[in-house]
């Protein structure tokens, strides 16, 4: 079984380097147009999923058209709580932000989530997807993708950074991840 994990199209949040996850902001029209133009570069599958957030729904539609799909809210991006829709520049001098960045892999955001909480819900949400034999595509988020890849293949978050419209195709055998390639393939 091949599972394709794709990050949604670029948003105003990613363009401005904001912390956003729970904010249900749209993808930028120009990014959606670019992904539509490159739709043939992406693998297809028998099953399609999104996190249910607007930017993932829009991205799925421009790449794959009006395909039937399932929304898996467990694959939504991290809730950055008090840091939502704010930049490093806005937060850098606040004590709460300084406390969080001492260990972003474990500390929760004030009134938000921690990376381990996001990973637990992501692994629970993806478990039934990878147990089925048919190939699947999940249009989700960069942080969720990095967390899943770290859990499956080791390494650090930045080993699995993906730009908007990029991701990984993971090969599973008997429900276990065995290999991966970057999507779309390097030109």
Automatic annotation (TrEMBL):
SUPFAM superfamilies with a match to the protein in the record: Phosphoglycerate mutase-like (SSF53254)
GO molecular function: phosphatase activity
A Pfam family it matches: His_Phos_1
Alphabetical list of SMART domains matching this protein: PGAM
Domain of life according to the entry: Bacteria
InterPro entries for the chain: His_Pase_superF_clade-1, His_PPase_superfam, PGM_Phosphatase
PANTHER family: BROAD-SPECIFICITY PHOSPHATASE YOR283W-RELATED
Record protein name field: Histidine phosphatase family protein
Gene source species: Vescimonas coprocola
